[in-house]
Design brief:
heterodimer, A: alpha/beta, Rossmann fold, 6-stranded mixed sheet, 4-stranded antiparallel sheet, B: mainly alpha, MetI-like fold, 11 helices
Chain lengths: 278, 236
């Protein structure tokens, strides 16, 4: 169980305080696939980094099964957007990197690593170096490297963000398979609504300036998920409507004030929708 | 061309053929080979010391702010001092002999090595360190297993620079110092008015400099850069 209690984060830049996250409360039960979804700048990656222990919250606490998070630990492994593999190690050694620290024997380490790499279908590339792999394959290695540590929570920070559409679809499918097989708690950060809807049990929609939870949605659809499931499509549109306000808010700050996404309409607000979503 | 113009008498500017003959003769009677051996021994000792010393200094300045603020700026200013100006001091400290020249060679390479190592460590991608930390690496293992390997491209560049600086320092040191190195032969050439010997040795120095740089360091650098993903892969 991951608990985030009244967490806030403020960055200080040039003596100006910038509130990135404000009063985040979240309980994630074991085995849940939960997505943090929001426009860029809503602090979703910051929240993930704080759960990972790489950043410290300015206020509030984060606990995992009752224990306070004070620093990075092997019970929470992160898969980053860039695979962040060590270029001087082979694929196999990359996966062994964290395992070596757990005090297993050498053969056991190797065996475990190759088993995990087989799970992501990279058995043929054990001795390859990261620069010889494609972006999708590198991300597979990164996933294997995290899985092999058998963490309590798998943290994924836009893991498929930099991939092309075909590779992304393939990896999403495989991630779902891995989730169904291992039943790990997965905290998944993305700005892709479709991806969040397709993969998660629960979606936390975050707003911007300051980052806060604006909606906590359950995805009720059978697994494995189908792309054309009407529940998913309905949910996708609903989230799109919620986010539109936020996206416009960001756009107005960055672009001109009169910017709207939809032409010939008043700025849309979910609280004043006159029942159009019924 | 310059020879044909006859600006200087033959004695001052020998013909290319005379120079070639001197080169061949020098290798046949073994005097060049001996000089090369002596010079290379000094160079290798000095270079090794420079690489080790420079790496230590670099690690120190990159790891601690206080070291960076004190030694770091000192290294920068020392880097701009040609290492040959250390020779008078070195002669006093180590007497006329091998040690003084080796000292100058070492000093020549150390600073650029230290600067490269420091910049290498400072430029390690943050994401790699973060990834390593989430997998349980911290402290010394994090340093030896992630930060040092990640800065290897800079280390190689540093070694290449250090080699070039050491080589220059060696020649300057040998011109003034004693012994049987290439630099000293060059001085004999001057003393005996044998300009073809001087030119032959200059050619030798240039050839050795570019050969080591191209054959050893450049190749090493390219292999490392490709492996570290900083060069586009020719294969894919």
């Amino acid at each position: 169980m991951l608990e985030i209690i009244q967490v806030g984060k403020t960055f200080t830049k040039n003596q100006k305080d910038l509130e990135v996250l404000f009063n985040i409360n979240l309980r994630v039960p074991e085995g849940e696939f939960i997505s943090l979804l929001g426009p860029s700048g809503c602090g979703k990656s910051t929240l993930l980094n704080m759960v990972a222990g790489l950043d410290k919250p300015s206020s509030g606490t984060i606990t995992i099964s009752g224990k306070h998070v004070t620093g990075p630990g092997t019970d929470r492994v992160v898969v980053f957007q860039e695979a962040a593999l060590f270029p001087w190690l082979t694929v196999l050694d990359n996966v062994c990197f964290g395992l070596k620290r757990l005090g297993l024997s050498k053969t056991e380490t190797k065996q475990k690593a190759s088993m995990t790499l087989k799970k992501v279908h990279l058995s043929k590339f054990l001795q390859a170096y990261p620069h010889e792999l494609s972006g999708g394959m590198r991300q597979r290695v990164a996933i294997a490297r995290a899985l092999v540590m058998d963490p309590q929570i798998l943290l994924m920070d836009e893991p498929f963000g930099a991939l092309d559409e075909q590779t992304r679809l393939m990896l999403q499918k495989e991630l779902e398979d891995i989730y169904l097989e291992t039943k790990k708690t997965i905290l998944f950060v993305t700005h892709n609504i479709r991806e969040a809807v397709l993969l998660s049990d629960r979606i936390i929609v975050l707003g911007t300036r300051p980052g806060r939870i604006i909606k906590d949605l359950r995805v009720r659809a059978a697994r494995p998920r189908q792309h054309n499931d009407s529940n998913l499509i309905y949910l996708e549109n609903k989230i799109m409507d919620i986010l539109q306000v936020e996206i416009e808010k960001v756009a107005k700050e960055e672009l001109d004030d009169d910017y709207t996404l939809t032409k010939d309409s008043f700025p849309w607000d979910p609280d004043r929708d006159l029942g159009s979503g019924i | 061309m310059v020879f044909r113009l006859q600006i200087w008498p033959d004695l001052f500017f020998p013909s290319p053929i005379t120079v070639a003959e001197t080169l061949i003769n020098g290798f046949q009677d073994g005097s060049f080979t001996l000089a090369l051996a002596v010079s290379f021994r000094r160079l290798l000792i000095g270079f090794t010391l420079a690489v080790f010393g420079g790496t230590l200094l670099g690690i120190l300045t990159a790891s601690f702010t206080w070291a960076d603020e004190t030694i770091g700026s000192l290294i920068l200013s020392l880097q701009s001092v040609p290492s040959i100006v250390w020779l008078p001091l070195a002669l006093l400290w180590f007497k006329m002999g091998e040690a003084a020249i080796i000292f100058v060679v070492t000093i020549g390479g150390t600073w650029s090595m230290a600067l490269s190592v420091a910049s290498g460590i400072k430029n390690v991608p943050v994401i790699l360190v973060r990834a390593a930390r989430t997998m349980g690496a911290s402290g010394l293992p994090l340093f030896t297993e992630v930060i040092i390997p990640a800065s290897v491209p800079h280390l190689i560049t540093g070694m290449r620079l250090a080699w070039a600086f050491s080589w220059r320092a060696l020649m300057a040191g040998e011109l003034i110092g004693t012994g049987k190195g290439l630099g000293q032969m060059l001085m004999w050439g001057r003393d005996f008015g044998n300009m073809s010997l001087v030119l032959a040795i200059m050619i030798l120095i240039a050839v050795i400099g570019s050969v080591t740089d191209n054959l050893i360091f450049k190749r090493l650098e390219i292999t490392v850069l490709r492996r570290w993903g900083q060069l586009p892969d020719s294969a894919s």
